[in-house]
Amino acid sequence: MKSGGELGKASSFPSLALLSWFEKEARPLPWREHYDPYQVALSEMMCQQTQIATALPYFHRWIARWPNWSSLALAEESEVLSAWEGLGYYQRARRLLALAKRLHLDHGGLLPKEREALFELPGLGPYTVAAIRTIAFNLVDFPIDGNVRRVLSRFYGDGSFSPSKQQDEAFSEKMMPQFRRVRRRRELAQALMELGAMVCRPKKALCQSCPIQADCCSATPIRAQAFPVKKPKAKAKVLHLSFVWIPESGGLWLRQRSPKGRFPSQYEAPNVEALTEADSKGRLCDGLCVPVAEVQWSGPIRRDFTTYQVTWHEGVLLNSMGFEAEARLREQGFDNHPYDHVAGLNLIPLMAKRLRLQNFKNPTSLLPS
Ligand code: SF4
Fold first, then answer.
1. Which of 5, 46, 216, 296 could disulfide-link 55, Cβ–Cβ 3.0 to 4.6 Å?
2. What class is the 15-224 domain?
3. Taking a C-beta distance cutoff of 8 angstroms, is the pair 333, 256 a contact?
């Protein structure tokens, strides 16, 4: 172990020790069997923002249904979104489909290896390009994800803000010579990620079981807690979102959102977002030409996102809408969707979750009696 005075000065990275640990301890993941570039890219996109254990059943179903880029390219967006349902961040599924279509049309259904060619494809950012090049093709590159940043900031005792461009560049400068030196680049990249996931864990680092402890600037769970250094968080913006189910004629009033912005192309019940609960409920009910008291409300349900803290207020309109309200809703793109169809629509997650409790039937019984 390095002494405290040597923080940030860990010399050469012990790649060989890490590689031999990976050889023994790596989890047997399906995309590690053959390193098929399609499977590697799919795993990278599925596992961004999602735990591997959660993504695995999706991965198996996906590969059984669409075993390569060309079969995926022929899928309908609705099928792809429905296969993705539950993984969240649906934009990833759309990007994957756009990528498959382009590869099918322009690259014979295969991923290119060259950095420039990969960057020209839709949906691939710097991290995914580096991951594909290293893990799928075993080329010299360096994918840096949250696990890698955590391991390296602890290993080097790096006190700069994480994540940051400056820190990523510093890590690249230190690690790229290692990737040039070793042949097992795909193993080295994954070993760093695996160490972060299994040993150098966010809350409790298992330093006693760590293959690089002897060279690590932190080396103990307590010292490891000081890294990575996070930027102070901007205060989350508080929002209230009121939405109302309008059950009518055996269906619900819903519309599809725009393909841009939050929840792209997903379906939603009438709703209004505002800075206060009173404002969001008031404006929503004004639009429906009913007093706020005529909607039966439940909730609130709070959801914290990185930059927003949203409180949802769920309501059900118990009486029928007037003609004026119906005309206004139609103008805004809403339509009455029969309950039989609602289950097949890609609804905003929280609304889908609420309706799933009711088997996509009349939501009246979701509310307290
Ligand atoms: S687990 Fe401990 S010893 Fe290993 S890299 Fe992380 S902080 Fe260092």
1. 46
2. mainly alpha
3. yes
Q: Which of the two residues, 142 and 287, has the higher pLDDT score?
A: 142
Burial 23-35 (b: 16+ CB within 10 A, else e): eeeeeebebbeee
Task: Tell me if the domain spanning 237-366 has CATH number 3.90.79.10.
Answer: yes
Q: Which atom of ligand 1 is nearest to the CA of 206?
A: 1
Write the residue with the smallest CA distance to atom 6 of ligand 1. 200
Q: Which residue has the tokens 């189910």?
A: 245
Domain boundaries of the chain, sorted by first residue:
15-224, 237-366
Q: For the chain, how big is the Rg over CA atoms in Å?
A: 25
Q: Active-site positions?
A: 44
Q: Coil, strand, or helix at residue 338?
A: strand
Which residues surround ligand 1 with Cβ inside 6 Å? 151, 154-155, 199-200, 205, 207, 210, 212-213, 216, 218-219, 224
Percentages (nearest 5) of helix, strand, coil residues in the chain: 50, 15, 40
Helices (H), ranges, 107-161 = 115-119, 126-131, 146-156
What span, in angstroms and rounded, lies between the C-alpha atoms of 323 and 187? 65
Atom of ligand 1 lying closest to residue 211 CA: 4
Query: What digits encode the pLDDT tens for the residues 197-248?
Result: 999 999 999 999 999 999 999 999 999 999 999 988 888 899 999 999 999 8
| Same-fold call for 15-224 versus 237-366 | no
How many angstroms from the chain centroid is the CA of residue 290? 38
What are the tens digits of pLDDT across the range 279-331?
A: 999 999 998 888 888 899 987 989 887 788 999 999 999 888 888 889 999 99
Model pLDDT for residues 51-96, shown as the tens digit of each residue: 999 999 999 999 999 999 999 999 999 899 999 988 988 889 999 9
Cis status of the peptide bond prior to 163, with omega within 30 of 0: yes
